[in-house]
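[audit] Reproducing an earlier prediction to check determinism. Same input, same settings, fresh worker. If the tokens differ from the archived copy the diff job will pick it up downstream; this log only records the rerun itself.
[audit] input (435 residues):
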Amino acid sequence: MMWKCGAFEFDSRVPVIMGILNVTPDSFSDGGAHADFASAVKHARAMVDAGAQIIDVGGESRRPGAAEVSVEEELSRVLDVVRQLADLGICVSIDTRHAEVAQACVEAGAAIINDVTGFSDPAMVDVALGCDAGLVVMHMKGDPATMQDDPQYDDVVAEVRDYLAGQASKLEAAGVARERICVDPGPGFGKTASQTMELMRNFHEICRLGYPAMCAVSRKSYIGAAYGIEKPADRDQASASEALAACELGASVVRAHNVEATAAALKDLRPYVLIGLGSNVALVANPGEETEGKIANLQQAITGLCSIPDTQIVDISSYYESEPAYYEDQDAFVNAVVLARTGVPPKELLRYLHAIEDSLGRVREIENGPRTLDLDIIDYQMYVVCTEELTLPHPRVCERDFVVKPLLELLPHHVLADGTPVTAESAVLGKATKL
């Protein structure tokens, strides 16, 4: 899945760093440090040299309680900087909630509009429709002046996810191409420290929307609360650790003050792997409870996956019942897909999967025949191989409904390592129904 931002595009399978350039006198962590033109441009170039692929220019403080600045004042702070950085060939994002500022900056060369109000202003939607810039749709409860006044949620993860889905859908309905949209759950914007922590620990739920997702936690107050770090400028290492955790859960854009620390942390990001699970022979089941027995096999397999070294499960699909494929004279299957991060190389991982199959009594007498458990590596990030032992991506992924449906539940619009998009239309075998 690509995020298209004007003349730039970014592969969401590999996180990109967005360096923060505040040209304000009152930002919460670095206000005034880069308020003049020369120091702003110098700092932006330093962030690019450190690994930033995008520079996010902001001319209005978003700290809690911050007063709104006029459009004229905001433009006086950001416009020349945006123009200069764009002229240098840098992908520039403008962080603004004002349509007039967004319009002027796009005309000056900005390739991304980062709107903390989630494009709730029709005038901002009009700006988006009149250009080809990438769009960051953020969730914020209230406005910067009031957002931390006792924010309340029944379910912060579900409410933020549903808001982002709704705003993105409105943009698409208005005519914005889906591939231009990135979503940001807005950590710290109208959320307490505990609410933000809950949101970030369930970041995979945001990724299930099928858009590139931004992790914008740098120096936020919840990090101070969680790690016991009072000064925002002292939170860079903790921020980098939180960014890595979010990327393990699927974040594809990281907004950061300290680009060098963030880039260093992301070197530890493990590849993602998609594993298909299937069973049509229950080990233990009373008459009429065969489906439950097959599900029990998959649950035991998931427990086994948790024991693989340097491997962490990120998300698990629903269970699906599917018709047998290839060899039809057998019972229906129960299938699922697991998304994980792993430091185990593919061939070694396959051996672990075979060991889990064997532990549940897998017998290989008939090709594609009945089995207590079947575990397949479907896709391994950026890894393509074709050998007698292992072929990746799995050569039959796209034709199998029992793989495609659970996979797209986790990763809508997923593109395999060899560049093949996974689509529901291609799945013609093993019709699957969610249980």
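[audit] rerun output stored. Observation attached for the diff report: The chain has a mean pLDDT of 94.
[audit] end
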